[in-house]
Structure formats: C-alpha cells, structure tokens
Prior knowledge:
alpha+beta, five-stranded mixed β-sheet, globular
Amino acid sequence: MKKVFVGVFIIAITCLSFQVKKNKKDFTFFIHLNFQNKPLVLNDRKYITINKDTVIITKLKFYLSNIILEMEDGTQYKESSSVHLVDAENLSSLEFKLKKVPDLKINKISFNVGVDSLNSVSEKFDGDLDPSKGMYWAWNTGYVNMKLEGKSSSCTNAKKEFQFHIGGYLTKQNAIQKIEFVLSEKQNKSITVELSNWLDAISLKETKSIMIPGEKAIKMAQLYKNMFQIKQ
C-alpha cells in the first residue's frame, strides 16, 4: 500500500512540476518611438513643436530598468539583471524578451527610466551597461539616463544644436523616473514614447543644453517622464 501511495505522490509532484513549467512563457516588450503620433524619423524629418520650435532629431537613447509585472493573482514578476538600452538608431533595441513570465493576465507594469545607484557603482561594464554604448559618464556621476540630441533654428548657439544628457544617481542628483501603468482589458502591452510631449514642454530658445547632474537635470527628467504611455 505504501508503494502505491509513494507512486501516486511522485506522479502528482511530477504533474505539478510540469504544470508550473507549462504555465510560464517569454513575454516580449515592445517600444514605439513617436513624434506627434507618428513613428520617429531621425536626421531627415523636420518637426514643429507647440512652441513653434522647428526641430530635427539626431539621437535618442535611454535606459529602462527594474521592470516589474504585477499579475492578476497579486504576485509580481521581477526581471533579473533588468537593464535595457533603447536606441532609436538600433531597431533591435526596440523589443526585448522577459524570460519565464507567469502565463497570467498582467494588471500593472512598472519600470524605471534610468540606471540606479547599484548598477552605477557596480562596475559591471557589460551588455547594455558597456561604456562603449556612449552612455557612461564616470563612477561619481554614473550613467546618462536619457540622451536627446538634435538641431533647431530656435537654438542660439552657432551650430543651432540642442543636447540633453540627463542623469545622476546621488541623493540630491537622482534623476531616475519611475513609470507605472495600471492596465485595462483592452490595452496592449507595448510602450509608446511620444517625444513631442517632452519638447512641447520646453522652449529651445531658453534651454538648449543640460549635460551634468543636478537640479536642472531632475526638472528635465520630470518633464520627459510624460512621454511614456500605453495606448489602447
């Protein structure tokens, strides 16, 4: 009788283990870069902001990190080593996979725009944190969270260029922005980055460059936070 019980128990555990494995899947994260509700075009397309600034975007790069999915049963999926560099010049960076996500409805998505203090001081210079990606400053300033460059006739410098390299992880310089979306049944799971929301909120005649951590960088980060959306 004991042998039968043990056999049934082993079969039950095996089936449960199979079910757990079966109920996990890879989840693909899609990023859509837009300007005025149309796909962003670098270098060749002129855009006009709400402030009548004519702009050409030449570079857009930013980090997404600490991705957390809240499932319908209240559990959370936290991506391991969660740092992704999104680069408008590299189409392959506009999608990435989260491994072994529970096959359940996702109620909430949250992530950071930027690289936290732990990764900034870890000297783990590989993958998307490799300094060759052009997003690392130094140990005491860390990574550039958001990099936007372009040209505009509104800029008062000789080259008519604007540059925003926004970062900082120290207490009074922390420019990381946390984004959180509560999802409805009809919403897809892709993130839209509407760049016009950021440039509409500033005047390039007044502000054309921020290149170091500090109060101005933090205020600018709070403005570009509004670019991130999930649309139905």
